[in-house]
Amino acid sequence: MKLPVGARIIGVGAGLPASVVKNSDLTRLVDTSDEWITTRTGIKERRIALDTETTSGLAIEAARDALGFAGIEADTIDLIIVATSTPDDLYPSTACKVQGAIGAVHAAAFDLEAACTGIVYALAVAHQFIGSGTYKRVLVIGADIHSRFLDWEDRNTCILFGDGAGAFVLEADEEGETGILSTYLRADGTGAHLLSIPNTGSAYPHTGTTPPRAVERYLQMNGKAIYNFAVQRVPEAVKTACESAGITVEDVDFLVPHQANIRIIKSAAERLGMSPEQLVTNVDEMGNTSAASIPLALWQAIQRDQIKVPSTICLVGFGAGLTWASAIVRWTARDHRRIQKKTEHTKESTDKRETQEV
Ligand code: COA
């Protein structure tokens, strides 16, 4: 359904822990090898938060970076949505912490939980708010610190995840054109048991005498089932988002999938007939950063000059819930800071030339 007002993405940003953990470091914790992790997942290293780093801290860093990219001030933001399943606390929301820290004094703020798919869900919600004319600028952040909920003695899971935050700034398009061409959101709660971080919420009875053992609060996953779910749902989500945007898969220039496993990404690309050059991935450097992974992958592709402006991009996420979602985006955003630097550089050389000529 076409919304009355267009929305486009004008900024993207990242917030990353400084600490890099390589596969070889993990061999000191569990019975694994760099070769096994690389061939089964494509992951070589990941960022892991220090004890002093928090989900809100990474989200704030990503928010500031995205605002800098867009060249706008925090007090012009109307709404902040943080997609996270690992918030600092049950409340206050991580979004409220971001709002306070960056000085987004006019913004409403809330968290949204759809696990690794959260960022695409949040983008869709932001699109609706802008599309209906309610808000003009929305900051959408995906932020997670999964390392706090991993059993570092379980080789099946601890090798997969990394920590980080990624952000998008969305703006109403005054010219009436839209940058978000379509969104597609799905869920299947019958698969809830396949991927979970149990005993961290109110379902765990407060007996006062038998707190859950640490290991009962760690991430639990049926890896094979999640793998099969992902390889089927990603192509479906891409095709459906294309159909509702009125384009075909051939019209998509770049696919930015959730960065869980390079084999899932390649299998989906193959089913869709996409070439390796069209894939945006950084799973080798970041691992699975959950809700942060899609903006982080796009952010890094922009740093590497992989993304041409303008281009048509498909974002596709999947994860616990089960949930999966996609969006078709007409990408027109340029890094305001780079443009400013270029302008200053050109002005400097013109001034120099003029001085020499005098
Ligand atoms: N190092 C070495 N061996 C490992 C290992 C590790 N880190 N993790 C598991 N193994 C072992 C298993 O114990 C198993 O041994 P066994 O045959 O003796 O029992 C063997 O490797 C093969 O395991 P299998 O489950 O067949 O591997 P796989 O090819 O399915 O890969 C995953 C496992 C987890 C990488 C893969 O299933 C996956 O990526 N699933 C999706 C997970 C995901 O993306 N989750 C997040 C979604 S948002």
Characterization of the model:
Helix content is 35%, strand content 22%. The chain is built from eleven helices and 13 strands. Strands 1-7-6-4-5 form a five-stranded mixed β-sheet, with helices on both faces. Strands 8-13-12-11 form a four-stranded mixed β-sheet, with helices on both faces. Helix 7 runs parallel beside helix 8. The model has no long low-confidence stretch (mean pLDDT 94). Residues 32, 36-37, 40-41, 116, 155-156, 159-160, 221, 223-224, 226-227, 260-261, 288, 319 line the site of coenzyme A.
Query: How many distinct domains?
Result: 1
Indicate the low-confidence ranges by residue numbers: none
Ligands and ions found: coenzyme A
CATH superfamily: Thiolase/Chalcone synthase
Shape: globular
List the helices and strands and how they pair.
Blueprint: E1 6-15, E2 20-22, H1 23-26, H2 34-41, E3 45-47, H3 55-70, E4 79-83, H4 94-102, E5 108-112, H5 118-131, E6 137-144, H6 155-158, E7 164-173, E8 180-187, E9 195-196, E10 220-221, H7 223-245, E11 254-257, H8 262-272, H9 283-286, H10 293-303, E12 311-319, E13 323-331, H11 336-357
Parallel strand pairs: 4-5, 4-6, 11-12
Antiparallel strand pairs: 1-7, 2-3, 6-7, 8-13, 9-10, 12-13
Helix pairs in contact: 3-4, 7-8
Bound molecules: coenzyme A (COA).
